[in-house]
């Protein structure tokens, strides 16, 4: 075991920032190697020397006099500007830590932005995806009587009690309220989610303005412009909704195999109804994709789709997450309480992913929601009624879990009103090519390449491989290949695949699969011969449905025979 001191010294060597400790006489007592690199004196032992000898431009004397931190000063170093901050240690009687970093031009910009946002006559607050404040400008903080530094890091509802940002980041829907009443003020509030390019929610932003400010003369023009923009936005929103409604949600699910076509047809029919749906399938087969498509194709499409991963949330937090809590329900409960996912999904769909991992203790509570569509928040007395549709998914064998006593039979029946099995990719190799085509299109845009497809050898390897991670694994393998393609490459070749990907079929452990395929082909040929080419008869001889025979003929390219 390394000693704590050694460990600390080691960690210090890993930092990108330079650190120097000095005592009240300005003598260096400790440092990390990066500090010397930034100061241009690498490799020296400067312990015991005066700071001013190695760093003449230091402003330590000021700090030793005022005993106040001095943050973000700029000095010229050997390799460009250095940002230097001084932090006197609380009980250090003048001992000070100095943090050095190479000045990044981003710092200048970030400072300009920060100053701009701070001075803007508009309240601004930004939260992360958990609804915690990461930024609040001076104007906004003063509107609600807080100091910016004390507000950052707190749940937004604690600082801006009127904010709906928590719901905005959970549901992804904006919130506009031109008439918020707060401590005698009338505020205008606009809150929107911040999303990345793929639509994932990163956080949210709140804009607050007192109504009288909007009506002041200098704002009238601004307000007028704002109204025009807002109307234009509404127009675009309508247009987007129109486009989205006309774009079938099933388009995203690629595949030409009879299994996937049949499944899409069935799911489209199920979407029209209200029954709960259970999606079964191995990891990465597209359960999430199907759940979203069912919601999009249902009459609930304009209401929220809320996903909960039952395996990812610790058991003791799951109840609060699902059902919410009232103020004071437990220590640490947020002021004003918090709505649960079921409440937020009212009118929409709740997608319970990894339902096989739902703790036994939660199962009766979920059962009650399924039976009565009602529940109480933790610590609450009021019964809340919700209108939600449940789609659940798992890659576990629920029936076995029921037998083992880990899953309640009554809950299973309630969830599995309609069960859809999504077959693993290895059972539908003909889907590989169309899925690859759409993924290649996507990655061509992302990586700015013009790949046209798979080489015949890669196609063969893909069709033989067992894909334990299904479509997700296929996606990862292709993305890996894109990282190794040259701009002039038009086809994905075996050498672009990950080194762990089996490069030869026989060495990949697929002998059994190949043997079965060969035996199948033999049997089909014999049956066709015996049936004198009559496929109905051949299917009867083989003991399979004629449609099954047609599929196999296509798969093995035996149609001409
Ligand atoms: N038929 C398909 N066509 C196109 N993309 C697909 C298809 N099936 C799955 N995908 C893609 O594969 C990835 C994994 O799919 P998804 O997350 O829906 O699987 P899952 O079954 O929910 O996985 P898990 O059980 O691990 O949560 C996603 O990026 C999804 O878009």
Tell me about this structure.
This protein has five domains: 4-103, Beta-Lactamase (2-Layer Sandwich), CATH 3.30.450.20; 110-215, Beta-Lactamase; 249-421, 3-Layer(aba) Sandwich (Rossmann fold), CATH 3.40.50.300; 425-508, Helicase, Ruva Protein, domain 3 (Orthogonal Bundle); 511-555, Orthogonal Bundle (Arc Repressor Mutant, subunit A). It is of the alpha/beta class. It is 42% helix and 20% strand. A hairpin with a 6-residue loop joins strand 16 and strand 17. The protein is globular and about 105 Å long. It has a five-stranded antiparallel beta sheet. Strands 7-6-10-9-8 form a five-stranded antiparallel beta sheet. A five-stranded parallel beta sheet has the order 12-15-18-11-19. The termini are far apart. The structure holds adenosine-5'-triphosphate. The site of adenosine-5'-triphosphate has 17 residues, from helix 13 and helix 21.
Features:
561 residues; alpha/beta; Beta-Lactamase; Rossmann fold; 5 domains; five-stranded antiparallel β-sheet; binds adenosine-5'-triphosphate; Sigma_54_int_dom_ATP-bd_2; transcription; transcription regulation; Sigma_54_int_dom_ATP-bd_1
